[in-house]
Fold:
Amino acid sequence: MKTFKIGTVLATLVLLAACVTINIYFPAAQAEEAAERIVDDILGKEKQQQQKEREQGENKSSSLDNPLFRAIATGAIDFLIPSAQAAQPDFNASSAAVRKLQASMKSRNSALTPHYNNGAIGFTRDAMIAVHDAAAIPLKERNKVQGLISSENSDRSALYRAIADANGHPEWEPEIRATFARTWVEKASRGWWYQNAQGGWVQK
Structure:
């Protein structure tokens, strides 16, 4: 039984080490914080300081309550994590290019908001925007709305690329885009439309 418990603890530590290694390449938590800050600013929302507890599965097993097991776990974690944390990059989302694009999107948001509100447009699963219900757009405004969508999507693509470039990791662009895709939906107002992972439209 003791052998099984020790094996479980060691397996957990190996998994933890693997996760830390992944975070060295893409700092997901920092990227999420940056995305929330930027999206809040663009949408004109107040920063909700929600301290999201990312400690999932805080189920303390009896084996880890044992002082010996706790000492082994602590020692192993201290051995595995420090070097990885030292290599953890400082995520940068405030270069001149990023700030310029953010300001452009913020100024455009007031024109887009009525169309989010009436369901005419919504957030796509790839962190862009698209027409959800063309009938909700008056005929005389359709060209204007299409122009707004085109300009917004151009800025969004440039923003994700600029953030990746600001960090010296252009290969991070897909992860940054995915982070923003989730954040746009999280920050969307009640009643707005967005695409789920399968591309179907869902109302928040």
